[in-house]
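Risk register update: the risk of archive-format incompatibility is retired. Evidence:
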Amino acid sequence: MSCKSTKEINITNTNILLNKELTPLELQTWYQKDYLEDSIPGISLNKWYRTNKKKPKNKSIIVAVIDTQIDINHEDLQGQLWTNNKEIPNNGIDDDNNGYIDDINGWSFIGTKSGGYVVWNKYEYTRIVQAWEPLFKDKTESQIDPKNIFNYNEYNRALKELEEENKFYKNWLKSLDHHVATYSLVQDTLKYFFPKEDYTYQQLDSLYKKYKINDKRYRLRRDDNDKDLGALISYKMVSLEVGQNTLQDIINQQNELDSIINKNLNVNYNERLLIGDNPNVLEKGYGNNNVSNNKEGHRSIQDHCTKMAGVIGANRENNIGIKGITQNVKIMPLNIASMADENNKDIAMAIYYAVDNGAKIINMSFSNSFSLHKDWLADALTYAEKHDVLLVRSAGNAENDTDKTIYYPTDINLGDTKEFCSNLIIVGSVTHKPDSTFVSDFSNYGKQNVDLFAPGDEIYSTSASNKYEFDSGTSLSVPMVCGTAALIRLYYPNLTATQVKQIILDSGTSYNLEVIVPGTKDKKVQFSELSKSGKVLNVYNAMQLAKKVNKKKK
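Archived output:
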């Protein structure tokens, strides 16, 4: 189906002011604006609400957000969260026989048997090395069965990544250990010059230039354990450069890196021990029902999901905070994400849960260039397709061409460019600046494997602990699309997930604009060359096109 009906905005010929300086209020809401009316390249959400006079045919729609835990008590999400009315709260019985006990507001697939949650996961490349090391370690390609060549190459790619990351983090930790060891000496020395410890970085820089005895790089000074005056001043400058103003700041970073090395990057770390499941079997019966867990002594991991939920469906009628894309939504939080990478098993099981419990759209603000069980992910996508559920996934924040490096979950098979399912949208990120920096410098891209772009830079949304924050990432672009899909399916419930996907792609805004390719300093291409549609999400256009398609369908 092709329904191309939108005009191209020719940036080079327009009289609209480029790089308009946004006020604080405009910055909070920029992504909802319309380019032609507001000079801001948003998604034209306000334009649609300003012109729409009709009410939706459906009273509500369920959007699953597969993510971290969520701040279920946030003031701007009240009334917007999904409730499983078939389940009697806290009776310890699976009342609706869906395989999950007391799943009132969703499910935590990283929940532990004790009622807590897993904070530290392994990276996916760590899991691959652990799983495939017995098959491939120290073997050459000539020793490998041809049917296992792909896995063999993936193992070696994962091993290289693991070794490089281990080296990086161990070197960083060594620096932190050195900072802790020299902290008292550095502080006491600087007190001689600044008794009130009220120095600035610039003052330290001037002092360093006066007293340095050589121009050694930091790492060499660290390894030589230099303690001359110039070296001590430079140690403090290095700490200030990365925001480590106190000893506790350094210790906190030290503890975090210790966990990364000994958990995220440790092939022998058993991340599933506290969950108690078999990670090699797809089955229900693990996790717990606490999707908003703040266990004392644990790192809180509610922020990411709370931000996604706010963009989609923060309460539009309470006159506080922000306005989500649609009021008539019920957010179903499904926890799979903690520190490091999501487990393929949890992703697949969360998709199955969302589909089986009534979600029509699934927000997946994550992606990974490694996948241990890509078959599980593919099966879950096709299961969702069979049940007419649309999935939206972030392109990723690695500045990569995804036509060259596959990111998962994906709708293509190895060596094939044809999609095996028609219900997945992959989204990159754009900024509010319609110039060469229009594509966010962190965003992945791909003429074949990224479907379109949406705002994902400096997005203001709900955050954990009942707060509001700005954040950036292709993660934020995903709920833009999910909220738009929710609006379409609310007003035109007869349209299928496949039709909704095509409408969103065909109705986007085209920009005649040369942009810097992410990951390069100054390489420029036409914006249209960085995604399949070559467009940016546009709610107003999508709703107009959905109306036409729905009329033809009738």
